[in-house]
Amino acid sequence: MPWKVAIIGSKGRMGTALLSSAEKLGIEIAGAVDQGEDPIPAIENCDAVIDFSFHEATPFIAQIAAEKGKPLTIGTTGHSPDERESILKHTGTIPIVWAGNFSTGVNLLFYLTKKAAEATGADFQPEIIEMHHRHKVDAPSGTAEGLIKAVRQARGTSEKHIQHGRKGITGERPDEQIGVHALRGGSVVGEHTVMLVSDNERIELTHKASDRSIFADGAMKAAEWSQGKEPGLYEMLDVLGLKD
Ligand code: NAD
């Protein structure tokens, strides 16, 4: 079924990727809205709204989407607790898919990491390695944080067992430790590997991103999925049918 999308934040890096994704997938643009433009006509005229703009913008977009009864997909990050609250109150009226990472592959990696860490015991010790371009200013990446969370959920590991890098006389590695290592260099978009290492075998789960189109394509998939869903809060694992 052909459908129409309203893109909020349309002139940004992600907005541009979303416009390309819609064109590639044959999805009609009901409206492309950026700062200083009225989002109401686009939202009125669409089947689903996608917001990749700025944290301060999302509460108003959610309010209009709720008033017009349109499902909303939110990729924007950095909301304050107050902003989060004013967005979440609309989950009683419309479906909202909200994810910090819309890549299908990364969400699958979260799922597979949790399953692999559950299926193996303490003799398979977890090490997480991430690599990003030299301009990245923080470590570990948000995605690595998500992988740490997946291992901790599976193993019940406490925060004090997370080990960021190693240097000097570190002592032997405790079984429950989660080693985390950040590599930086060049123009690498984002790579993450989870290793589960035992004495005689090693599992490695790796995701490599090469283009931000993976987030745009994932958000389009979420926006299509959201149409006709019950009001509520959903995440990318719901869209991919991977929710436990
Ligand atoms: P960007 O700065 O390139 O683009 C943001 C755009 O939003 C700009 O064009 C800006 O003018 C516009 N904008 C600001 N206020 C607005 C308003 N009130 N109404 C409409 N448009 C408004 O940023 P980006 O790299 O495109 O990222 C946008 C957001 O998406 C950020 O919060 C970023 O962290 C997030 N992001 C999420 C994912 C994911 O998978 N969830 C992936 C990449 C980026």
> Kindly, what is the distance between the CA atoms of the first and last residues, rounded to a whole number of angstroms?
29 Å
**In sequence order, what are the helices and strands, one letter per element?**
EHEHEHEHEHEHEEEEHEH
Biggest pleated-sheet summary:
6 strands, parallel
Please give the number of β-strands. Answer: 11
Query: Briefly, what CATH class of the largest domain?
Result: Alpha Beta
Summary, kept brief:
The protein is α/β, with parallel strands linked by helices.
SSE diagram, text form:
Elements: E1 4-8, H1 13-25, E2 28-33, H2 40-44, E3 48-51, H3 58-68, E4 72-74, H4 81-88, E5 95-98, H5 104-119, E6 125-132, H6 142-155, E7 162-164, E8 178-184, E9 190-197, E10 202-209, H7 213-226, E11 232-234, H8 236-239
Parallel strand pairs: 1-2, 1-3, 3-4, 4-5, 5-11, 6-8, 7-8
Antiparallel strand pairs: 6-9, 9-10
This protein binds nicotinamide-adenine-dinucleotide.
Nicotinamide-adenine-dinucleotide (NAD) binds next to helix 1.
